[in-house]
Please model this.
Amino acid sequence: MAGRTLYDKLWDSHLVTQRDDGSALIYIDRHLLHEVTSPQAFEGLSLAGRTPWRLAANLATVDHNVPTKNQSAGVSAIEDPTSRLQVQTLDENCDAFNVTQFKMGDPRAGIVHVIGPEQGATLPGMTVVCGDSHTATHGAFAALAHGIGTSEVEHVLATQCLVAKKMKNMRVTVMGPLGFGVTAKDVILGIIGQIGTAGGTGCAIEFAGEGIQSLSMEGRMTVCNMAIEAGARVGLVAVDSKTIDYVKGRPYSPRGTDWEKAVEAWTDLVSDSDAQFDQEVVIDGSVIEPQVSWGTNPEMVTGVSGHVPDPDVIGDPIRRGAIERALTYMGLKANQPIESIRLDRVFIGSCTNSRIEDLREAAEVVDGKRVADSVIQAMVVPGSGLVKEQAEEEGLDVVFREAGFEWRDPGCSMCLAMNADRLGPGEHCASTSNRNFEGRQGAGGRTHLVSPAMAAAAAIAGHFVDVRDWL
Amino acid sequence: MQQFVKETGLVVPLDRSNVDTDQIIPKQYLKSIKRSGFGVNLFDDWRYMEPGEPGMDHTARPLNPDFVLNDPRYAGASILLARDNFGCGSSREHAPWAILEYGFKAVIAPSYADIFFNNSFKNGLLPVILAESEVDALFALATGDHPVEITIDLQSQTVVGPNGFDASFDIDPFRKTCLLEGLDEIGLSLKDANVIRAYEAERAIDAPWLFRD
Model:
């Protein structure tokens, strides 16, 4: 039998039934829920008189709408009535259906893609879904994880399965050691810059090679998180000792003989050496430099030593038009050096970069320095209550505060500005989030995607700088 | 689910690639806990002159005359034409909800982002994939002085328009059946309840840690 990819193995072990028409039912081990994409699903479930198929597979939290100030005051203190109603609705639905939920203010609450791994609710070999495209994050644990829509949230609640069609296998190999001061965020932005926002459409991307293996689990989560920005719903990294070490001893992780049996099973969660991929991309990791996005989608990115592109030299009229529109929106000039872009705000947070390692990386850069006077606001939003506690134990909050950063409560925050944290029109933001779409961080806001270290350095300098010069 | 069998209607040419779901329906409108009310905010940032918020009287907001949806020639259109990677970005199903509620029954583009594509079928919105050259030809037709009507026939998997435009498209047979009949997918899956239970029983032997409730 021909070798199987990691994705093939995960698919095979979750295939419930293959239908004659080419569709399949696949089993879902873990279903994560949050307040934005679930209310209509719970409503549908109720209207049809259905109940959750397997309650214990579900875990819910509030993240998108929650304020990042004074969360201990509770849901009733959320100022925006529509946000408050959405958070209350999740609370009510979870209570009514008996779904386990980490409510606002619970230290275990936080961004859904941070808390899943943190709790051990995401395990190698699982299928993990959530009504959120950044569910790809969990693939860092060799779990088959992807975002779904609200109809599918309802389908998973009702049946513990999804109607699915097998994706294609794609492998992105990052060769060689990464350069000094180059982070997981730079790697994934560099990959997206090369393969484009639709480069992985229809595929499950396995990230492989020394450049990936050398990353911590936090780093691998950052890479898989943004697989969706390359068009792939699924990102994957094979299991190794770092995966096992990370998972061990977490609240939802298996224990005792279960643990031993699980570890034995997980060691097979790698692509066979003779496995065939439908698409292969090989990238030289040693040439990736710290990345900065200049445009309005994540493929519009370049190295910090680079320049904003000149649309006049682009032959393809559709691409030229897209760049022209992006430069107009972003208020940038053709050929402008990246380092000349000045920042109004800095946001360190989001499901891409709000874990303890990200905060350490940023704190190391800002330690003993001050945020530039020209920067209106620099904020750090930890990914969960537990990340926040850990950072405070390490004194990172003091480092950030003394440098002039705001130290906030956990949530999605300014990544998508569903709460009060947002950009004003025309403002430039160095952001560790994942999407630089028009208006994403606030109407008219201008997002530049960067790593935590690059965001931290930009906050201090007031414009983009090559953080490697500071390390 | 809403059926889709055949649609004849005006085509609106939205000449952009990588149209993301943040543009289709901006996040401030995702705070709703309902399935309806999104049509008036479809492409909100492009469609109106000033930023909008939930609860506003959107009918009173000044429209952006340069945005193609506001061009009176395309009033009442039911087919949206766009460039590649349409619907990229977030998984929000509010995107197809907004497109449908505005009055579109189908989208035509050379390619779509996976989650948007999937979500569309769950709601009876048909995302048609045509070749770049065919999409180019439709743009040429639709951007002329006189708006054009085309017909999308799901049964025959064809798109027919003026000037001899005639194209066919592929579609997954399961999705085609669901759309043609407006099937309840959950109900269909629950017919396999015994198969799902049998899978669980077997899986619990190999991976018991997944089933410790």
User: Anything to note?
Assistant: The mean pLDDT of chain B is 96.
